[in-house]
Design the sequence.
C-alpha cells in the first residue's frame, strides 16, 4: 500500500480535531458556546464591501493577478507603514502581497531552508510556524515562552551550536496563543542577536490593530537595523475582519523577500484584484480615521465582559493588551486537555487546550473572544454553574 509523505506525520492537528468532534456530540444534548477558533465573526465595514463590489464589476477584474500585488496595493501598504509605524518601505521590492500570512509563513521555510537547517520557533506557537519547518524538511528548535519572562524567548538560553545552524527565527507579538506583547527594546535585542549569529528574523504582526486601552503594538521594523536582518508579515484578516478574503503582505528586507517571491510565483498567482482594491480602501480608511480602527473596541468590550464574569465565578485571568485571545491558567489539579474537555462536556464551552500549541502551553487554555458580549456572559454563567472551577480533576 502506498503511503503519503512522512512530512505529514509532523502536521498533527489532533487536539483541534478532537475538540471539534467532541463539540459535535455535546451540541446534540445542550447549548454550546464556541470560543475555540480565532475566526473573526464580524463583517468588514460597509464601505469596504462597496469597494469590493464596484471593483468586481470593472473590466479585467477576474483575470489573473501578479503574485507581488498591484502597484496601488504595494504603495498603499508602504504609506500605511509610514503612517502607523514611521517605517519607510520601497513599494518595489520591500512589499509583496500574500494570500493570507499563512501563505507566507507556510512557504518561507521552503524558500530559505535545506534539510538539516534549524529554525527557531516559539513554544507555544501558532501551529504553521513549526508545521512549515517540517514541510520543508528542516528542524524546528523550540524557544520556550514562559510567564516569568513575560512570554518572551530568552535569547541567551539558545545554545551557540543551535544558533550557528539556525537559518531564521519566528516571533509573533501580539502573540497567539498567549496574547503577550513586545517592546521595540526587545526587538532591538533580537536584531543584535540576529546580527551576531547571522539569523533572519521573521516577525508575524497579524494582531497589530487588535489592541486595547489605547495600546498600539509596534512593528519589528521600528527597531534600529531591523530591516537589515528581517521581514514582517501583516494581514487584513483580523485588523479589518477580512479573514476569508485571503489577503496579507510581507514587508522588509528585499533580499529576504525575493526567495519567498520565487516560491510563490511558481506555486500560484496573486490575490483576486477586487480584494486588493478592498484592502487598499481599508488601509486608506484606517489612515483617515487616525487610529480609530473599530476592531479594538469590539474585542476590548468582549474581553472585559468575559473576564469580569469569570472573576466573579472565581477564575482570575490576566487581561490581555491585544489579540482576540485570553490565555487562561488552568485551575490546579487538571491538565489543560482534561480541563478543556470538562469545560465542554459540563459547561458547553469550547476552548483549546494550551498543549495544542506546544509543550510549554500546558497549564493554560486559550479562549477566543469570537462571540458577542451576551454569549460570552452566558458562557461564563454556564462555567460558574457547572461547579468545575471549585472542583479538582476527575472528582
Ligand atoms: C499569529 C497568526 N498568524 C497568522 C495567522 C493567519 O492569518 P491569515 O488569515 O493572514 O493567513 C493567524 C490566524 O489566526 C494567527 O493567529
Sequence:
Amino acid at each position: 500500500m502506498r503511503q503519503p509523505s512522512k512530512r505529514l506525520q509532523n502536521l498533527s492537528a489532533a487536539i483541534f480535531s478532537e475538540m471539534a468532534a467532541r463539540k459535535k456530540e455535546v451540541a446534540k444534548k445542550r447549548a454550546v458556546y464556541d470560543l475555540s477558533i480565532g475566526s473573526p465573526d464580524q463583517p468588514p465595514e460597509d464601505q469596504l464591501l462597496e469597494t469590493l463590489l464596484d471593483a468586481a464589476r470593472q473590466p479585467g477584474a477576474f483575470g489573473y493577478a501578479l503574485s507581488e500585488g498591484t502597484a496601488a496595493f504595494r504603495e498603499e501598504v508602504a504609506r500605511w507603514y509610514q503612517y502607523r509605524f514611521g517605517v519607510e518601505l520601497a513599494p518595489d521590492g520591500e512589499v509583496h502581497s500574500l494570500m493570507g500570512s499563512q501563505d507566507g509563513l507556510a512557504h518561507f521555510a521552503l524558500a530559505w531552508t535545506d534539510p538539516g537547517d534549524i529554525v527557531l520557533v516559539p513554544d507555544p506557537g501558532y501551529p504553521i510556524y513549526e508545521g512549515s519547518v517540517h514541510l520543508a524538511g528542516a528542524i524546528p528548535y523550540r524557544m520556550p515562552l514562559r510567564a516569568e519572562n513575560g512570554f518572551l524567548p530568552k535569547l541567551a538560553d539558545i545554545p551557540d551550536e543551535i544558533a550557528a545552524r539556525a537559518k531564521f527565527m519566528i516571533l509573533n507579538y501580539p502573540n497567539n496563543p498567549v496574547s503577550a506583547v513586545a517592546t521595540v527594546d526587545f526587538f532591538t535585542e533580537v536584531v543584535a542577536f540576529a546580527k551576531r549569529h547571522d539569523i533572519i528574523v521573521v516577525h508575524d504582526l497579524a494582531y497589530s490593530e487588535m489592541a486595547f486601552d489605547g495600546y498600539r503594538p509596534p512593528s519589528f521594523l521600528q527597531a534600529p537595523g531591523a530591516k537589515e536582518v528581517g521581514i514582517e508579515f501583516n494581514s487584513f484578516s483580523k485588523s479589518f475582519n477580512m479573514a476569508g478574503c485571503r489577503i496579507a503582505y510581507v514587508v522588509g528586507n528585499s533580499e529576504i523577500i525575493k526567495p519567498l517571491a520565487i516560491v510563490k510565483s511558481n506555486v500560484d498567482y496573486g490575490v483576486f484584484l477586487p480584494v486588493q482594491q478592498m484592502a487598499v480602501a481599508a488601509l486608506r480608511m484606517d489612515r483617515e480615521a487616525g487610529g480609530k480602527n473599530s476592531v479594538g473596541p469590539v474585542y476590548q468590550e468582549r474581553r472585559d465582559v468575559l473576564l469580569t464574569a469569570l472573576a466573579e465565578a472565581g477564575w482570575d485571568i490576566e487581561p490581555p493588551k491585544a489579540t482576540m485571545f485570553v490565555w487562561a491558567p488552568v485551575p490546579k489539579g487538571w491538565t489543560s486537555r482534561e480541563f478543556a474537555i470538562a469545560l465542554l462536556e459540563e459547561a458547553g464551552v469550547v476552548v483549546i487546550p494550551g498543549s495544542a500549541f506546544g509543550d510549554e502551553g500546558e497549564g493554560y487554555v486559550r479562549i477566543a473572544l469570537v462571540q458577542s458580549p451576551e454569549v460570552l456572559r452566558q458562557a461564563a454563567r454556564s462555567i460558574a454553574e457547572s461547579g468545575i472551577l471549585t472542583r479538582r480533576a476527575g472528582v
User: Anything to note?
Assistant: The longest strand covers residues 118-123.
